[in-house]
Amino acid sequence: MTPETAQLGLIQRDRARLWHPYAPVSPDLPLWEVEGAQDVRLRLRGEDGTHHEVVDAMSSWWSAIHGYRHPVLDAAAMRQLGTFSHVMFGGLTHAPAVELAERLVDLAPSAPGRPGLERVFLADSGSVSVEVALKLAVQFQTACGNPRRQRFLSIRGGYHGDTFAAMGVCDPVDGMHSAFPGLVAGNVFAPRPPAAASATPETVRAWASGFENIAAEHAGELAAVIVEPVLQGAGGMYAYPVECLTVLRQVADRHGLLLIFDEIATGFGRTGELFAADHAGVVPDILCVGKALTGGYLTLAAVLCTAEVAATVSTGRAGALLHGPTFMGNPLACAVANASLGIIANGGWRTDVARINARLAFGLAPAWELDCVRDVRTIGAVGVIELHDDVDVTAVTAAAIRHGVWVRPFRNLIYTMPPYISTAAELVQITAGMTAAVAEVHERGPAQKPVPTGWGGAG
Prior knowledge:
Layout: H1 3-6, H2 10-17, E1 33-38, E2 41-45, E3 51-56, H3 59-62, H4 71-81, H5 95-107, E4 117-123, H6 126-143, E5 151-155, H7 164-168, E6 188-190, H8 201-218, E7 222-227, E8 231-232, E9 238-239, H9 243-254, E10 258-262, E11 286-289, E12 301-306, H10 307-314, H11 331-346, H12 349-364, E13 373-379, E14 382-387, H13 393-402, E15 405-406, E16 413-416, H14 424-442
Helix pairs in contact: 4-11, 5-11, 6-10, 8-9, 12-14, 13-14
């Protein structure tokens, strides 16, 4: 750092060197410095020197489900640091990874008469876990004598990450396909299911029939079906009927396709069940988890699959799953993940999520009275205000901070996924702050030109 740089504030130094997610390099990019975090609160400092204590309504992009500086997670990290923080996973193993695999298998979706998820591949991040899942499906089909099955069937509105194969199964219109022509794979997309709030048996059957027809038409070239079960996250916070998961399972079985559930956002209780798949009692062949896996402490994800999938790939021509991250099975991350899953196993997450859902539904109801609002909806510990027009991200974020709430809107949505430990008072603050911010900015018209936020995804 030069003497000149030392005279600048942290935010100015950031703007000179760093590039933030879904944002341009800009000297005007709104930023707040985090000076500390505890439980569900962040201590922020603005560029003008003002200080704000805010409730983190985002759980740090849906990961910090137990809040910040949790004593159990802190202790787990410190214990592992006292042993070793990292070791390569090629040819070596360690207790935190083995314990984590055992825990995940025990918690994974299950159903009578259906093969369970018995094998675990540890990845670096959610996007990487999707890449692994897609590789796994293609290698499985090739090992089964179906080398032409290289494509994937998904539904519109999905988001599965920002790496190339993951982008290829995101929504083909609202995703990033057009920015990378020739590089993002061309896959097959069916219409998204009807919205959960307005679906009827007739609309579900009509969607199911259309999905079946598309699968049948392309079956010879498809390796798997991949979806976010029940709730599409960064694609629009869109909930659809749980019955659709049964349809997906039946269609996949009928056409010899694997079924991949991306539960990176929905896993570990967020929708009201431990996994969204549990709403329908459906077991996928491959399951991706991430985000909340370590309680937001460290990046880690996992891919679970059935014994048949693992054995078939292992005895195929390649003789192995062709993926191997340097930091695969990082002991520090695995140790914290075990502690986080211990809190989930021993705690009252189900009661907490139900309590949060009730508070969000009640607290966001006044937003219906605003002319700028198209919809208000909740599922589990998720609350959404949907506008008719795109949200002014800069103005709404600043307004919410003034009301003591940190949100990160995108597209036409202001939403919350609060930590499970949020109190009744904190949930009141979140819902009141969101509603007030929307009213202040969008009931009077755009306050200022919003800073471009790219695709508005969620990491």
